Amino acid sequence: MGKNYPDIAKDLTGAIKTLRTAIPDTMNAFTQLAEKASADSVLDPKTKELLAIAIAITTRCDGCIAFHVKAALRHGATRDEVAETVGMAVYMGGGPSMIYGAQTLEAYDQFVEKYQK
């Protein structure tokens, strides 16, 4: 096992709280943007989280993978749906996306193990 994605999410949550204190107006605006973009609309929240996972893979963002895999799981995403999302990210992002895609499935398995016991 490589990275521990539940720990990455936990550690970043503390760092983000510190950032929220440092730049509250910016972070409030970011939170509003995230809420509006993630809201149930033409695309449901699970689909939006799967899209976010694909983008996180292609931009190679460990924290983004952690947060969006956790959110996708909360919205009912299955491992097969995450795997298919990884496939699209690999197709669009090549070899580096394949590496981060493998790590994304690892993140999914870690969150399932941690939260579904």
Automatic annotation (TrEMBL):
SUPFAM superfamilies referenced in this protein's UniProt entry, alphabetically: AhpD-like
Transmembrane segments: none
Residues covered by the Carboxymuconolactone decarboxylase-like domain: 24-104
GO molecular function: peroxiredoxin activity
Protein name as catalogued: Alkyl hydroperoxide reductase AhpD
Organism name: Terasakiella brassicae
Lineage: Bacteria, Pseudomonadati, Pseudomonadota, Alphaproteobacteria, Rhodospirillales
